[in-house]
Amino acid sequence: MSDRECIFCAIIEGHAPAEVVFEDGDTLAFMDINPANPGHTLVIPKRHIQDIYGMDEDTAAAVMGTVVRVAGAIKRALQPEGMNLVQSNERAGGQDVFHFHMHIIPRWYGDGLRLARPPEVRRTMPIKEAAGRIRREVAKVRTIAAAYTDICCGKK
Ligand code: 5GP
Ligand code: ZN
Questions:
Q1: Which residue is closest in CA terms to ligand 1's atom 24?
Q2: Residue 95 CA: which ligand 1 atom is closest?
């Protein structure tokens, strides 16, 4: 399931070059072409999934497994002093390539990278209200999953 317009799908299919560091049946890890720091690596699912909202749990687990493996390899190979995992969704979230990817970014003291929140912490919604809204939606998803399990396992 690839997207003909997608540069990461082209890399998966071998139609575009990349410095691949790890590959398995479901995932690919390769060097970012414009690294924020030495060792900056991207991990992607081989299936074209646009962003976090299109993710399924199995693919997410496969991607995270590869992230853990490659992050350990980067730590051993380059001895960074820190490591960030970054994942962006939608244009407003800073996503430029619309094929889900996790950035693994090695960090060193004084590298000048700024990935954290802006200096002024903006709170336009009380934390409790945001938590309440999210909790209601999370509960809905669990209810659907539980209902599916009951049906599939013959409880209903
Ligand atoms: P985003 O901004 O979507 O989170 O990250 C996209 C990343 O993909 C950027 O860091 C960018 O440097 C990287 N990138 C874009 N095009 C290519 C490419 O053709 N090859 C590789 N290896 N990385 C790319
Ligand atoms: Zn793609």
A1: 33
A2: 3
Whether the per-residue pLDDT at 66 is higher than 90: the answer is yes
Query: 40-76: buried (b, 16+ CB within 10 Å) or exposed (e) per residue?
Result: bbbbbbbbbbbbeeebeeebeebbeebbebbbebbbe
For the annotated catalytic residues, the residue numbers are 101
Domain ranges across the chain: 7-116, 118-156
Q: Give the Å distances, CA to CA, from 5 to 15, 58, 96, 132.
A: 12, 25, 13, 39
Specify the CATH class of 7-116 in words: alpha beta
For position 156, what pLDDT does the model report?
42
Separation between Cα atoms, residue 88 and residue 103, nearest integer Å: 9
Q: Which atom of ligand 1 is nearest to the CA of 36?
A: 10
C-beta separation of 99 from 9 below 8 A: yes
The per-residue pLDDT for range 28-47, each reduced to its tens digit, is 999 999 999 999 999 999 99
